[in-house]
Write a structure and sequence with these properties.
The structure holds two protein chains of two kinds.
Chain A (H helix, E strand, L loop, with lengths): L4 E12 L5 E7 L2 E3 L3 E6 L5 H8 L7 E6 L2 E2 L5 H11 E4 L11 H12 L4 H14 L15 H13 L5 E5 L7 H18 L2 E5 L3 H5 L3 E6 L2 E7 L2
Parallel strand pairs in A: 4-9, 4-10, 7-8, 8-9
Antiparallel strand pairs in A: 1-2, 1-3, 1-5, 5-6, 10-11
Helix pairs in contact in A: 3-4, 3-5, 4-5
Chain B lengths: L1 H14 L1 H38 L4 E4 L9 H4 L25 H9 L4 E16 L2 E10 L1 H8 L5 E4 L3 H4 L3 E5 H7 L6 E6 L4 E10 L4 H4 L2 E5 H8 L8 E6 L5 H12 L2 E4 H4 L1 H39 L1 H9 L4 H36 L19 H27 L3 H6 L2
Parallel strand pairs in B: 3-8, 5-7
Antiparallel strand pairs in B: 1-9, 1-10, 2-3, 2-6, 2-9, 4-7, 5-8, 6-7
Helix pairs in contact in B: 1-14, 2-12, 2-14, 2-15, 12-15, 14-15
The chains are: A alpha/beta, B alpha+beta.
The complex binds adenosine-5'-triphosphate and magnesium ion.
């Protein structure tokens, strides 16, 4: 089976100009294959989040080139990039970013409704399927701000899954959870790669979790210093 | 796609329903005032216009005694090339009569721009009160036509206007005249004509136009009575009042008739230009006040949307991170602004209707306006249409900048800021 590259970068560099011009990313070259579970580790401030924002197309102010599913993101308009995020990328943040005005179910459905590929009923059905995978379908009709942190993070994962994205990115998705919930969420990620061949890219501070991923990208001072293949 | 945006807008709106309500109330208040003010002002305009327009000829043909415009010397071929100076020109001795009026009346009757015509005859007289004579004017009118075209009966406050026709030598006195003469219904009064003849007339009614100048001087009688009073033949008339189908063409028709019939003609617009100005200024004031109120409401919406966007930064960041574009976010907030505008505006229309119908019930009795019993209100649907359009436009403009700001929010900054 030939490996299908989902995400690839060519010499990505990033500068911040305030207060002084500093280079926070230096010639980053990575490529991630379909079905891989990749983690990014490194000291605080080494540029992990910055890289993730670029890879997720939210930050477009960088040098170099980004390919998602073999397609260059260069010169794409804001609306086109939004479409790419909607269709191909799922994002899970450290802090559970849910829309408090909506129910759990509606939170999961929103990106699906935005994609407009399925009818509302189908999207709802799919959302319930995703909630089932994460074991929280009983929370579907609850208001998003009436559930626990661990539950919120699982809802966020369900939301990331709704459009069957090519890749799910997480910025320390377990960072704000206790040991037990962190383990639970990490376990879900492992399941997703194993059972659904889901591609995952995750920034983590937890050595233990990193070791359990297919590949660890180690960063220091804006550079990739090591790519370990554990398996 | 729009359904999704609408549903997101709705949720954001309902999550902050108190603020939203305050914003909507601002719009409601201004639209209510706008509608009420315009309806009331327009009612007032109608009333004042009605005072004049309904009771006045659109074109009045008359004969003015003035020096001839063409002097004989100018007609002469011999002196045509020269400048001829003629000094001390005096008017020729002639009567106020419109000559050949039968032909003019006939021509007017056949003109299909004309709704109707009422001939009239005015006579200077003196009302005799004991030893004192009060100057006055008697209008000899074609009672039925005068009523059909100029709503004569509306100003007859006492008595039946038809008695003028049915009772010979009868008169309807102006209210002011009647008061000065202490005349009651059925009394017989005496008047002196300009030629010195004394005539007795029976009072069959009173009229009140609401204009002191008129009510203190004028009276009405039939044409025949007036002709008898003046001792003139039965085809003597001094005025022809023309009512047109379209009042707008009055100035142009006045000119046309002036040339065609060789009489003087004045149109209603020229005769009453001061009323036109009053009306348009009242309208202008209402619009200005209404729009000012709306602008204030607009600032309210602007503030509330800005606040909402500030509070909803996180939500906007999530929406963007999960694939909503800047323009989607823009549409969401514009939808919120417009919903406030439409909801507040519609409520304003209802309250405006309510408030104006309440005003419509408030008694308004003034001696000057005998036919008016309550404050005048004009329920023109145009005001309601303008009201809702204005509220939508203002809220759109008020929502535009905040929405643009929301659409430009960089999710990375928000997510990092956590
Ligand atoms: N908006 C900004 N302007 C200037 N410098 C910034 C800005 N955002 C981040 N930086 C700097 O860029 C560097 C990389 O930040 P980044 O958030 O990517 O680090 P990180 O690896 O994710 O750290 P952590 O593990 O603590 O989350 C840091 O030195 C940070 O101070
Ligand atoms: Mg970080």
């Amino acid at each position: 089976m030939t490996k299908q590259i989902i995400l690839e970068t060519h010499n990505i560099s990033k500068y911040f100009h305030e207060p002084l011009t500093v280079q926070v990313l230096k010639d980053i070259n990575v490529s991630i294959n379909k079905g891989e579970f990749v983690s990014i580790v490194g000291k605080s401030g080494c540029g992990k989040s910055t890289l993730l924002y670029i890879l997720s197309t939210m930050d477009t102010d960088f040098e170099g080139e980004l390919f998602i599913d073999q397609m260059s993101m260069k010169g794409k308009s804001e609306a086109e990039l939004a479409r790419v995020r909607n269709e191909q990328i799922g994002f899970v943040f450290q802090f559970h970013y849910l829309l408090n005005e909506f129910s759990v179910l509606k939170n999961v459905m929103l990106p699906g409704l935005k994609l407009n590929k399925y009818t509302k009923e189908e999207v709802e059905h799919r959302a319930i399927e995703k909630l089932k995978i994460l074991g929280i379908e009983h929370l579907a009709l609850k208001s998003a701000n009436h559930i626990s942190g661990g539950e919120k993070q699982r809802v966020a994962i369900a939301r990331a899954l709704i459009n069957d994205p090519n890749i799910i990115m997480g910025d320390e998705p377990t960072g704000n959870l206790d040991k037990k919930n962190g383990e639970l969420v990490f376990h879900i990620f492992e399941e997703l790669t194993k059972e659904f061949n889901q591609t995952l890219l995750m920034v983590t501070h937890d050595e233990g979790f990193a070791k359990r991923t297919d590949r660890v990208i180690e960063m220091e001072d804006g550079k990739i210093i090591n790519i370990d293949q554990y398996t | 796609m729009y359904k999704l945006i609408a549903s997101v807008s709705k949720s954001l709106l309902l999550a902050r329903w108190k603020q939203t309500l305050v914003a909507a109330i601002g719009v409601t208040f201004s639209i209510t005032m706008f509608i009420t003010l315009l309806s009331f002002m327009a009612g007032l305009n109608d009333l004042l216009d009605g005072l004049i327009i309904n009771h006045t000829a659109h074109v009045r043909l008359y004969k003015e005694i003035k020096p001839a415009q063409k002097q004989p010397i100018n007609q002469s071929q011999q002196y045509k090339q020269d400048y001829n100076f003629v000094s001390s020109i005096k008017p020729k001795r002639e009567r106020l009569e419109i000559q050949n009026n039968a032909a003019i009346l006939k021509a007017l009757q056949n003109d299909d721009r004309v709704l109707g015509i009422a001939p009239k005859l005015t006579a200077q007289i003196f009302y005799n009160v004991g030893a004192i004579d009060l100057t006055g004017v008697i209008n000899g009118i074609d009672i039925e036509e005068e009523n059909r075209l100029f709503f004569f009966n509306e100003n007859v406050t006492e008595g039946n206007y038809l008695d003028l026709k049915n009772i010979p030598n009868s008169i309807i006195l102006g209210k002011g005249v009647a008061q000065k003469m202490l005349a009651n219904m059925g009394d017989v009064i005496r008047v002196t004509t300009s030629k010195g003849e004394r005539v007795q007339l029976k009072v069959v009614g009173f009229f009140e136009l609401g204009l002191q100048d008129v009510d203190n001087v004028q009276s009405y009688a039939s044409i025949a009575t007036t002709q008898k009073l003046l001792g003139v033949s039965n085809n003597y008339i001094t005025d022809i009042q023309v009512k047109l189908k379209n009042i707008e063409i009055a100035p142009q028709l006045a000119k046309e008739y002036q040339q065609l019939f060789e009489v003087d003609a004045i149109d209603i617009q020229t005769a009453n230009s001061q009323f036109e100005t009053g009306s348009s200024i009242r309208t202008l004031i209402s619009y200005t006040v209404g729009i000012t109120l709306l602008i204030v409401a607009g600032f309210g919406i602007y503030n509330i949307l800005n606040m909402m966007i500030y509070e909803k930064m996180d939500a906007i960041a999530i929406l963007k991170a999960t694939g909503f574009s800047g323009s989607d976010v823009h549409h969401i907030f514009i939808t919120i602004a417009l919903s406030i505008g439409i909801f507040g505006g519609l409520l304003g229309l209802i309250f405006g209707l309510g408030l104006s119908s309440i005003i419509d019930q408030i008694p308004f009795n003034t001696a000057a306006l005998p036919t008016v019993k309550t404050y005048p209100i004009n329920y023109n649907p145009k005001f309601y249409f303008i009201g809702i359009v204005f509220s939508i436009i203002t809220t759109y403009l008020a929502g535009y900048l905040p929405s643009r700001k929301a659409s430009k929010i960089d999710p990375v900054i928000i997510i990092r800021g956590k």
